[in-house]
Amino acid sequence: MRVLIAGAGIAGLSAARALEINGIDCEVVEKRERPPTEGAGIFLLGNAARALGDLGLLDEVRSVAYPIATQRILSSTGSVLNHVRTANVWRECGPCLALSRQSLTGILQRSLIPGTVSYGLEAVSTASRGKMRMVRFSDGQEKEYDLVVGAAGVNSPLRSAVFGSNAAREIDISCWRLVVPNNGEIDGWTAMLGNGRTLLGIPISEAETYIYADCRSSEFGDGSVNTMKRLFSGFAGPLGPMVAALDPATAVHRAILQEVPAKRWIADRHVLIGDAAHACSPSMAQGAGMAIEDAVVLAELVSKGGPIDGILERFHEARIGRVGWVQKKSRARDKLRSGSSRIRNAVLRLFGDGLYRRTYEPLTRPLLP
Ligand SMILES: Cc1cc2nc3c(=O)[nH]c(=O)nc-3n(C[C@H](O)[C@H](O)[C@H](O)COP(=O)(O)OP(=O)(O)OC[C@H]3O[C@@H](n4cnc5c(N)ncnc54)[C@H](O)[C@@H]3O)c2cc1C
């Protein structure tokens, strides 16, 4: 079987790994000239860790990750609204871990058969040709495949080409991401909620803490570190002083958040996975988890054999419920975060534990029946 994967982000690399360990060769093309060297941190909940275990990579990821035992939500003045022990929900599923994005993609890349990924090559278009899928590349070549896996991210050109007008849409939240020295004050996932503004700190090693900050896009202005410092100047400890101390020249990643509403993402011998199929706000920290799960499920179904159309139908059926749930709950969390502070703080104080459990427990269930 000839399989092409377009995109070498977390979804594409995971899909290649999952196919290769099931004995299925594949080619991956990545339009970037080389693997990314940028990217701040990433938080993986137990279901993402379980899927990395299915790829045979959990021990390696664990060896470079920081274990996250607690998730704590504070108000912008520093009072505790909710505090959960992650093991209460995730114990039977997998550990919760935080690490640098580069470490995660590095482990995925090194796990592949050498030469699997061709950098500096873009899949430009794809079309059905008889019983095969034809792909045209940026170097002018055309090749045929039994299956094309579109893992080209939120602005995937292949999505609109095959699936029409399901374009990504902005969700009125803009964010900064950066890594600062770990001053020892943050030893678990710690979020602070202000009026339409969120600050989050997660240790990714003994030496480094990942900081995420967001606000309404109308407040983002020039997106500079100085703007960030101004917007979060009223935040108390532990995170407020860390932002106040930032050098304006600190390297940050900026983004306007986008989502791709989950619809049907399979077509003739073509399937989308990861953000290309179902990007959403990072409120539930499930983007990477869903991408790795997509990869595991797709490879398992492909390895069982049978006509490609049937495999893709089963894949869609197996995934739509979980990714639809994540999108729905991410939107609900965004709404709660951006609503009245008084109501939100009361809801989190009174019902935070139950909300956490009800939101995440469905994701602890097996990926396939
Ligand atoms: C601010 C923010 C914070 C987040 N935090 C978390 C978190 O803590 N935990 C979590 O689980 N998730 C998080 N996510 C989500 C997570 O980062 C994404 O869901 C995940 O990285 C998606 O991976 P992907 O491979 O689908 O897409 P991408 O990472 O976008 O990869 C797509 C790749 O395809 C390449 N490409 C594009 N077009 C083509 C083409 N035509 N041909 C070849 N290559 C192509 C691109 O260059 C890129 O390398 C966050 C997202 C954001 C925006």
TrEMBL record:
Gene3D superfamilies given in the database record: FAD/NAD(P)-binding domain (3.50.50.60)
Record keywords, A-Z: Monooxygenase, Oxidoreductase
Domain named FAD-binding: residues: 2-300
InterPro entries per UniProt: FAD-bd, FAD-dep_Monooxygenase_BioMet, FAD/NAD-bd_sf
Gene Ontology terms for molecular function: FAD binding; monooxygenase activity
Presence of the UniProt keyword Oxidoreductase in the record: yes
Name listed for the protein in its UniProt record: NAD(P)-binding protein
Organism: Rhizobium fredii
